Amino acid sequence: MTTWYKEAFRPGSEIKGKWNGRVYVVERLLGAGSNGIVALVRKGTARFALKAGYETVDHQSEINSLLAISQKENSFKHFLIDADDMVVQGKGISFYVMRYIEGKSLTDFVHKRGQDWLYVIGSNLLRKLSEIHRSGFVFGDLKAENMIVSNYGDVDLIDFGGVTPKGRAIKQLTEVYDRGFWNMGERIAEESYDIFSFAILLLKTLDHRKRFAGFMKTLPQNRDLAQLQVIMQENPIAAQLAPFIHKALRSEFATSEEALVFWKGLVAGKKTATSPLKMPWLKLCFAASIFIFGATIYMFW
């Protein structure tokens, strides 16, 4: 991150749109990637996420894609709040403002709540991908770092730098989630490309041995599904999801809606512990209620 970005996104500094004139106050940085920087900002009492791009052309393409998706009747409607330019040290920088989502990373959420929450998270993520696909785009760079999970397993995607119109070459990817990396297909923006990444996301989340870092060091000719099959055999939830994962890795789902239907049928009846109240607390509450009931009878007898 260059010096001028550090200056522009210092907490308390103001970002003023060149064309719309709206002013946003920076609270803190949320992250910085290869294609831009994201900050938590506020306008009055409302809080938003603001992303500024390093490359104007690429960033404008991202804005255009997000605008097209958010104009549909789906969960992305009104996701894009504002788009403008800011001027920093005499240089024009494009930015856009989107809803700010409170939540946890996928890894933190599953670590805290349990792996069985993947049944719910998976359903919600597939719905999000289906909405993007129906809008004529592919997400492209699907990975744990590009999503946020909230309390009830709701999913929000937070980085749209890889969004690509269907039929084009994928413009941004992370190798281990890429089917080309695994010699399992082309880097073309198809719905099956996102579903492949979704399957890798599941396996990576369920892999206790952290083997994916080692996969990055293997030679291309040595990468195959047998390496991933081991994870499915070792983890009970991965084993339950294996029929879906196998089809996803082989790009056998023509559409994400087809994948969602298959997923729902596979996980139907799987229970997720949604109550934060554990049994010891239930027993204590029951005992307390008996005590209060007895005390009440004694006082009024």
Helix content: 40-55%
CATH architecture of the largest domain: Orthogonal Bundle
Q: Tell me the distance between the termini.
A: 75 Å
| Series of H and E elements | HEEEEHEEHHEEEEHHHHHHH
Radius of gyration: 23 Å
CATH superfamily of the largest domain: Transferase(Phosphotransferase) domain 1
Tell me the number of strands. Answer: 10
Q: Please tell me the total number of domains.
A: 2
Transmembrane segments: 281-300
Organism: Paenibacillus roseopurpureus
Domain Protein kinase: 24-282
GO molecular function: ATP binding; protein serine/threonine kinase activity
Question: Can you give a write-up of this model?
Answer:
This protein has 301 residues and is of the alpha+beta class. It folds into 2 domains: 97 residues, Phosphorylase Kinase, domain 1, CATH 3.30.200; 162 residues, Transferase(Phosphotransferase), domain 1 (Orthogonal Bundle), CATH 1.10.510.10. Helix content is 41%, strand content 19%. It is built from 11 helices and 10 strands. Strands 1-2-3-4-6-5 form a 6-stranded antiparallel sheet. It has a two-stranded antiparallel ribbon with strand order 7-10. A two-stranded antiparallel ribbon has the order 8-9. Helix 5 crosses helix 9. The longest helix is centred in the C-terminal third of the chain and has 22 residues. It is globular and about 55 Å long. The C terminus is likely disordered. It holds the Pfam family Pkinase. It comes from Paenibacillus roseopurpureus. GO terms for molecular function: ATP binding; protein serine/threonine kinase activity. Keywords: ATP-binding, Kinase, Membrane, Nucleotide-binding, Serine/threonine-protein kinase, Transferase, Transmembrane, Transmembrane helix. This is Serine/threonine protein kinase.
